[in-house]
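Help! Submission page says 'invalid entity' but I think these are all valid:
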Amino acid sequence: MSDTGDLFVKAGSAILGAAFALYPEIAKLVRDAKDAGALSESTLAAIARIDPLDVFADAERRIAAARAEAIPPTLPGA
Amino acid sequence: MTRRLALVACVALAACSLPPVQVAHVTAMSLAEANHVAALVCAEVAVTQASTDPAKGEATLGKCKAAHAKAHSALLVAGAAIDAWRAGAAGAPGCVVLDAQVAVLELASLVRSGGGKLSEAVDSAIAFAGNAVTAQLGGCKR
């Protein structure tokens, strides 16, 4: 790597080091991921595991229940 | 002495010496976590609205699902690009990570506009992604 390229990498690392210091939550995530060996996991697999698509099923059920409660019952023969 | 303190701090953070490809991986993981958390809070906002106005709650839930799905798709694109980069493909995935960051930010903004409260971790993930793209992922030039 050229001296200039090396300088950019060093500058980038310094900025990132400062960023980690600013964001302790991210530093914790890194520590946890290192402990769990998750840093070598496929990124695609990690995303699918952390952020599943089906997170709204419970909310849908509760909103449907709220809607059912809001509709007044129809009396037979009414 | 200063150097020693810096070294101790780095060991405590366990993060200072990550190679760029792992920074990309961690960035994507933190954005995925932020997207998941924001989706759960968005759903709670919708359910709360539905208790007094079911139609409004349903509409909000639809917006939550659309914003979450958009960010999830952007994250999967970024994840695939990061995996390819790790496997030796040329070109840092700055732009696709940035797209994912913007999409998660949109969901977070939707949650806040509905009165939902998000944890600092969500904001940290979004801000950190911007730092990572600039400092380690080659920026984004289109």
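Support: the input was valid. A stray whitespace character was the problem, and the output above is from the cleaned input. Helices of chain A lie at 3-22, 24-35, 43-50, 57-70.
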